[in-house]
Amino acid sequence: MPQASTYHHGDLRAACLRAARELLEEDGSAALSMRAVARRAGVSPTAPYRHFPDREALVSAVAAGGYRELAGHLAAAHPEPATPDELAAVAVAYVRFALDHPALFRAMFAEPCDPGNEERVAATAAVSEYVRGIVRRAYPDAAPDALSTAVWALVHGLAFLHLDGKLDASTAETVADRVRAAVLALLGTAPAPR
């Protein structure tokens, strides 16, 4: 008869995700290894493998959590944006999220992630659909996929330009003014709202 496992941890998955997020925030993705996560979570070196087959799966789970957090942050900026100004406010919130959580943002978008990770795919799709929904409300005559891709690409590019020090991020107002102006300039070429 097999012996019952004596292994027990209250919520190993959550502990590993917390540890991974802490490591990201402290030292960036270079410090994020399965062994480092286990050490930080206070578990054996093999324990994280019970929930994550490899580092890529762990990063995907961290990224999925980041996408959900980002979605909440955007909704808090404006729950149902329907005008160019409201869309610009959401764009400012997106860039602000990147600047407030640079390591998480980089893990979400610059780290390889498991494309088969259902949690990550669903979280990414939710953010993408959120942007398409804004575009459909603000610009009902525009092609929602094309315009939402253009808006996301612009805002995402602005986020990384600020993160990488290519644009002045010295004050929140400076960032907000630049992002708002860029988004409104892009939307000025889109069909006018009804």
Describe the fold and architecture:
Helices cover 66% and strands 0% of the residues. It is mostly helical and 194 residues long. The model is unreliable at 1-7 and 190-194 (pLDDT under 50). The chain has helices spanning 12-27, 34-41, 55-77, 84-100, 102-109, 118-138, 144-163, 172-187. The protein has eight helices and no strands.
Coarse structural class:
mainly alpha
* End-to-end CA span: 72 Å
- Estimate what percentage of residues fall within beta strands: under 5%
Q: How would a textbook summarize the main sheet?
A: none
- Radius of gyration from CA coordinates: 19 Å
What is the typical, i.e. mean, pLDDT? Answer: 87
As a percent range, the share of helical residues equals 55-70%
Total count of helical runs of at least 4 residues? 8
Low-confidence stretches: 1-7, 190-194
Number of strands: 0
Compressed to H and E, one letter per element, the order equals: HHHHHHHH
Molecular shape: elongated
